[in-house]
UniProtKB/TrEMBL annotation:
<feature type="transmembrane region" description="Helical">
    <location>
        <begin position="30"/>
        <end position="46"/>
    </location>
</feature>
<keyword id="KW-0472">Membrane</keyword>
<feature type="transmembrane region" description="Helical">
    <location>
        <begin position="6"/>
        <end position="25"/>
    </location>
</feature>
<protein>
    <recommendedName>
        <fullName>Probable queuosine precursor transporter</fullName>
    </recommendedName>
</protein>
<keyword id="KW-0812">Transmembrane</keyword>
<dbReference type="Pfam" id="PF02592">
    <property type="entry name" value="Vut_1"/>
</dbReference>
<dbReference type="InterPro" id="IPR003744">
    <property type="entry name" value="YhhQ"/>
</dbReference>
<comment type="similarity">
    <text>Belongs to the vitamin uptake transporter (VUT/ECF) (TC 2.A.88) family. Q precursor transporter subfamily.</text>
</comment>
<feature type="transmembrane region" description="Helical">
    <location>
        <begin position="169"/>
        <end position="189"/>
    </location>
</feature>
<dbReference type="GO" id="GO:0022857">
    <property type="term" value="F:transmembrane transporter activity"/>
</dbReference>
<keyword id="KW-1133">Transmembrane helix</keyword>
<feature type="transmembrane region" description="Helical">
    <location>
        <begin position="85"/>
        <end position="104"/>
    </location>
</feature>
<keyword id="KW-0813">Transport</keyword>
<dbReference type="GO" id="GO:0005886">
    <property type="term" value="C:plasma membrane"/>
</dbReference>
<comment type="function">
    <text>Involved in the import of queuosine (Q) precursors, required for Q precursor salvage.</text>
</comment>
<feature type="transmembrane region" description="Helical">
    <location>
        <begin position="52"/>
        <end position="73"/>
    </location>
</feature>
<keyword id="KW-1003">Cell membrane</keyword>
Amino acid sequence: MINEWLWLGFAIINFAMILTIYKLFGKPGLFVWIGMSTVVANIQVLKTIELFGITATLGNIIYGTAFLATDILNEKYGKSDAKKAVWLGFFTLITMTIMMQIALQFVPAESDTVQGALQTLFDLVPQVALGSLAAYMVSQYFDVWIFSKIKNKFPADKYFWLRNNGSTMVSQLLDSLVFCGIAFYGMPWSVWIEIFISTYFIKFIVSFLDTPFFYLAKKMNVK
């Protein structure tokens, strides 16, 4: 059970860090977090762990925090700022990918000890990279859109949970479908289904856990 408890603590730390950066820096802090989280998530996702009896990737927590950040922006500042944040995350991810591909082309010195590790982390697998980029844009834009739709239909404060959970859980389902559909295209159907279900299961839990932090962010008097 050590992984499960560590994972839960890790999730709480991630969500607490969002509230901290938001409290200290306001709206710009959320923009910075979204750019950072998209990059870190794509590094952490390379590590697999045993969690709740299934094999899962580690990056799902911090990737899920990007959805919380855009929900906070959408709730408190509007749809336009949320969309801007989505594009910022996309540009950050593209920039990191390009820069690291160039960095890997440099011939390392004889004394270098990290080239192999960098290649393991950043060597581009086109199908996976395309799946990651497509899933991010499709799911994040959908999250902004459906959050706004729910907010317009149910504007009362008592529907905070519906805006947050409804938009994020559906968007994460779409994210998993797009990513797995592209990145793992050609795999045997039984293996593909197992990866898809396990991926979404973890993302669903993350979406559920972020709800109290969404409420706390809403109550913060931050410009």
